[in-house]
Amino acid sequence: MLDLALHGGRGGVRTAEIAQRTAAPEKFLEAVMRDLQRAGLVSSKRGPDGGHRLLRDPAHLTVGAIVEAIDGPFARPGRGEAQAQVRATSAEACLDALWRRLEAAMRAAVEAVTLDDLRRQAEGHGALDFVI
Question: What's the CATH code of the domain at 18?
Answer without folding.
Answer: 1.10.10.10
